[in-house]
């Protein structure tokens, strides 16, 4: 009879702790009744069949299923709250058992356990007030904390196995099974948490870039629209140049100068044909920066949504490294030409950044991607090394070669496939 009372009290403590990890208020549903019944069956089956008491730990699987079914939560949240429940349960049992041990010789163990379990219920009820357990659960959803908790539990489990082995010089089959399942679970959780952490970082960076460069894209769009309002006046001005020109040669010269000014004012209008505001906004800001430093920019950009296996924030980082490198490379040159080519073809994206350059040997090409090497002086040369390491993560390569047009150009080419 007392054993049944103890089981019931343990179930009540479990339900209180688990429910308050998910909600501010406890509410009873059919899931609770099914959970209690299932847990009693597991525990009583272990006792009736004479199995090790450790087999009752498989009841944690029931708690995990209960979390998923009742609260319809994600696997990650179910994992986190199950781990927190184990931690709180163990700590509460230890704290409540210390005074009870002093009465062990004078009071029946079942009565002591009733007292311990009742006190555990009061502890859970007390700390759950004002949503304290819920706050702990939400705080634990922090990825770094999750990894630390999971790692700590794995370490604790390993210490436990070593201590048991040292004291008894053997391990029970259930010890191997339980610890094996626990270790696998923790390992999977760590991997999943790391993956989700990277995804979260990618999403945050995308949002940050979108907020930054969509505004730049809007400014470019607004500037082009304002200039289009003057289009008719500009056409009329071209038609009227013959009135003030003294002869044909002067007319051609005036038209050339005037049209050159128009092309210069509208030189970035072709960027708006791209379908990615983040990329277009970033390129526009970098082109303006390069022009302020005296560089001459030419570009050919034909992109749509820029969807590929490399996230857009990484594409922006790649373009930033290449453009910064090109701007620095032409800083001390008379010819300061920079040429950018970015286009999508089927399932591929091509990125090419070129700049006017002297000719380098093949040996120097190899040195370009070595850490610390730079033709610009000490303390430089980290950009291309970082770029190469980044591309390796996505199984891409950086190709470097020369091409000759009116000037010699060094080309940095990247081919990204889906």
The count of β-strands is 5
Return the structural class.
Answer: alpha+beta
Question: Distance N terminus to C terminus?
Answer: 66 Å
**Strands side by side in the biggest sheet:** 1-2-3-5-4
Secondary structure: helix percent:
55-70%
Number of helices: 14
Name the poorly predicted regions: none
Tell me the β content.
5-15%
| Main sheet: strands, sense, barrel | 5 strands, mixed
Radius of gyration: 34 Å
Order of helices and strands: HHHHHHHHHHHEHEEHHEE
Structural shape: elongated
Mean pLDDT across every amino acid position: 76
Describe the structure.
With 418 residues, the protein is α+β, with helices and mostly antiparallel strands. It contains 14 helices and 5 strands. A 5-stranded mixed β-sheet has the order 1-2-3-5-4. Helix 12 links the parallel strand 1 and strand 2. The longest helix is centred in the middle third of the chain and has 57 residues.
């Amino acid at each position: 009879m007392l054993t049944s009372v103890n089981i019931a009290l343990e179930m009540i403590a479990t339900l209180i702790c688990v429910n308050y990890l998910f909600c501010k208020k406890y509410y009873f549903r059919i899931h609770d009744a099914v959970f209690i019944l299932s847990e009693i069956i597991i525990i009583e089956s272990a006792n009736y069949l004479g199995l090790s008491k450790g087999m009752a730990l498989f009841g944690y699987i029931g708690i995990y299923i209960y979390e998923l079914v009742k609260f319809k939560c994600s696997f990650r949240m179910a994992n986190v709250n199950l781990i927190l429940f184990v931690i709180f349960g163990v700590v509460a049992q230890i704290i409540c058992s210390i005074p009870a041990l002093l009465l062990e010789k004078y009071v029946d163990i079942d009565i002591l356990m009733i007292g311990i379990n009742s006190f555990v219920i009061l502890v859970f009820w007390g700390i759950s007030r004002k949503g304290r357990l819920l706050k702990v659960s939400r705080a634990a959803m922090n990825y770094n904390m999750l990894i630390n908790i999971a790692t700590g539990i794995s370490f604790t489990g390993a210490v436990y196995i070593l201590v048991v082995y040292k004291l008894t010089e053997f391990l029970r089959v259930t010890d191997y099974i339980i610890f094996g399942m626990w270790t696998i679970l923790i390992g999977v959780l760590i991997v999943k948490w790391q993956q989700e952490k990277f995804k979260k970082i990618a999403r945050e960076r995308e949002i940050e870039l979108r907020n930054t460069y969509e505004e730049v894209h809007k400014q470019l769009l607004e500037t082009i629209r304002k200039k289009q309002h003057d289009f008719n006046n500009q056409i009329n001005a071209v038609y009227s140049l013959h009135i003030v020109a003294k002869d044909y040669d002067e007319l051609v010269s005036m038209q050339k100068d005037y049209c050159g000014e128009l092309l210069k004012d509208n030189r970035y209008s072709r960027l708006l044909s791209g379908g990615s505001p983040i990329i277009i906004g970033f390129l526009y800001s970098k082109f303006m920066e390069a022009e302020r430093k005296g560089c001459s920019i030419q570009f050919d950009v034909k992109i749509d949504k820029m969807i590929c296996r490399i996230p857009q924030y990484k594409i922006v980082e790649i373009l930033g490294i290449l453009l910064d490198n090109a701007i620095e490379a032409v800083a001390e040159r008379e010819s300061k030409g920079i040429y950018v080519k970015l286009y999508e073809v089927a399932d591929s994206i091509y990125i090419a950044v070129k700049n006017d350059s002297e000719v380098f040997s093949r040996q120097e090409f190899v040195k370009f991607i070595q850490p610390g090497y730079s033709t610009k002086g000490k303390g430089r040369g980290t950009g291309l090394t970082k770029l190469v390491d980044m591309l390796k993560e996505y199984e891409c390569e950086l190709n470097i070669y020369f091409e000759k047009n009116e000037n010699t150009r060094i080309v940095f080419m990247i081919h990204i496939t889906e």
